[in-house]
């Protein structure tokens, strides 16, 4: 594990072997980060947030309580996750609303993910999109609000352009060839 000297990892945070934590990161007690993850500059991981193995979180991302990033997720720079549907400066009775980004999914830079949604396995959220609804496995969504425009292979190649129905095969020719 590597922790940059300017990063703060509180006692009680769990960090897996091989993980790299860069400049000005802050991991709260109770945060969980898996093995071989990479946390870019100024990443904040809250108590109750879970980051899986081989996840890459780019600069300036806050992963708040209730957010789970499963294994091999990519989060682009300055993406935003929320965890409260009715935020107020003073609210003693707020309710944490969980969000899950499934295995291998990508959340593009500057995207906003509203709490309570699930982003499916190998799905891709375009940069700057605002996700307000669940995203299916392998689905490609873009815009504000994010809308489906196609389907992607595990490698990220677009394999279908029908926004509603996935193609019979969700693997591109290059990946199928091995």
What are the defining features of this structure?
mainly beta, ten-stranded mixed β-sheet, 178 residues, six-stranded parallel β-sheet, 3% helix, globular
Could you characterize what this model shows?
The chain has 178 residues and is an all-beta fold. 3% of the residues lie in helices and 31% in strands. It is built from 1 helix and 23 strands. It has one helix at residues 173-177, and strands at 2-3, 8-9, 14-15, 20-21, 26-27, 32-33, 38-39, 44-45, 50-51, 56-57, 62-63, 67-69, 74-75, 80-81, 99-101, 106-107, 112-113, 118-119, 124-125, 130-131, 139-142, 147-152, 158-160. It has a 10-stranded mixed β-sheet, with no helix packed on it. A 6-stranded parallel β-sheet has the order 3-6-9-12-15-18, with no helix packed on it. A 4-stranded parallel β-sheet has the order 2-5-8-11, with no helix packed on it. Strand 21 and strand 22 (147-152) form a beta hairpin. The longest helix has 5 residues, at 173-177. The chain is globular and about 50 Å long.
């Amino acid at each position: 594990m590597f922790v940059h000297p300017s990063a703060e990892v509180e006692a009680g945070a769990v960090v897996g072997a091989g993980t790299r934590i860069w400049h000005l990161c802050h991991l709260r007690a109770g945060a969980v980060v898996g093995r071989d993850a990479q946390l870019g500059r100024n990443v904040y991981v809250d108590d109750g947030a879970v980051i899986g193995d081989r996840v890459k979180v780019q600069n300036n991302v806050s992963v708040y309580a209730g957010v789970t990033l499963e294994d091999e997720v990519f989060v682009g720079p300055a993406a935003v996750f929320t965890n409260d549907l009715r935020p107020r400066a003073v609210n003693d009775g707020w309710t944490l609303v969980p969000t899950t980004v499934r295995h291998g999914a990508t959340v593009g830079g500057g995207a906003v993910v509203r709490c309570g949604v699930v982003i499916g396995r190998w799905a891709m959220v375009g940069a700057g999109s605002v996700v307000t609804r669940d995203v299916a496995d392998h689905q490609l969504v873009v815009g504000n609000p994010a809308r489906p425009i196609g389907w992607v292979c595990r490698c990220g190649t677009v394999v279908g352009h029908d926004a509603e129905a996935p193609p019979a095969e969700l693997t591109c020719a290059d990946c199928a060839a091995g």
